[in-house]
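Subject: Re: docking follow-up (magnesium ion)

Dear J.,

Thanks for your patience while I sorted out the input files. As discussed at Tuesday's group meeting, I've set up the holo structure prediction with magnesium ion included as the bound ligand rather than trying to dock it afterwards. The sequence and the ligand SMILES I used are pasted below, so you can double-check that they match what you have on your end before we go further.
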Amino acid sequence: MTAAKLHSDNVSISYPLKNGEEVIAVKDFNMTVKEKEFVCIVGPSGCGKSTMLGAVAGFQDISGGNLHLNGKPIKGAGRDRGVVFQQASLFPWRTALNNVIYGLELAGFPKQDRQSKGRELLKLVGLEAFENHYPNQLSGGMQQRVNVARALAIEPSLMLLDEPFGALDAQTREFMQLELLRIWEETKQTIIFVTHDIAESVYLADKVIVMTARPGMICEEVKIELPRPRPLELKRSPEFMEYEKYIWGLIVKEKEKEKQTV
Ligand SMILES: Nc1ncnc2c1ncn2[C@@H]1O[C@H](COP(=O)(O)OP(=O)(O)OP(=O)(O)O)[C@@H](O)[C@H]1O
Ligand SMILES: [Mg+2]
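The structure tokens for the complex came back this morning:
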């Protein structure tokens, strides 16, 4: 059996409000992410997906429960986690290569080493010809690939992606999903990926965690038993559509519950 990488045990997260009350964003969240596993989190908007991912990244304190990474409680951000958000957050004044190696600079890697590592990563994401381009000279999809390369540069034990392809057009998005799976196979990362897109979650994940409406709890964990490697055509197969329909049904039920409580 592979050792658990991440273990979330009854995690609750709340935001204090100015009037002294608090919003409970996540409640009793139990999840285990194994080494090299690809886990997607889906759920209605506002259910606490980003909040939960923020806690794993160490940007967000938890208000109850336990959250362990590699056996140690998470206390703040760290180089063992690479984070990618919806909008590529590259430094506009740095070239693609210099964006990728930013974390290595901070960590004090010698210049030669970080440049060769940066080039290797740009190659991995298919951008070796663009190392001297600035972000405004790259398309949205390319910028997001630089972002992924930057997160990988620090060799994190866990990659956290929050709607990383949300701002991309449908075609680029599909291509990026395929690319991410290829990178994942090559680097053997452990990934937690948050998305609104059910098809995206089924296509990528070993298991999809469906969250309830706020306060976000786990509604169901759906194991995706589709073979890998997964070509894009798999999305058109009956087995794929069956998973999609099933998860969609769970989310619709959650949305209906939400309507009844508003
Ligand atoms: N800084 C904050 N202060 C108060 N409440 C907050 C804060 N950030 C988030 N919330 C609340 O916590 C809940 C969860 O927010 P979160 O951003 O985690 O949801 P989400 O599932 O990522 O939504 P989306 O799919 O729209 O990105 C929401 O109801 C939101 O209003
Ligand atoms: Mg979010």
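A couple of observations from a first look. The CA atoms of residues 122 and 128 lie 5 Å apart. The first strand starts at residue 4 and ends at 16.

Let me know if you'd like me to rerun anything.

Best regards,
T.
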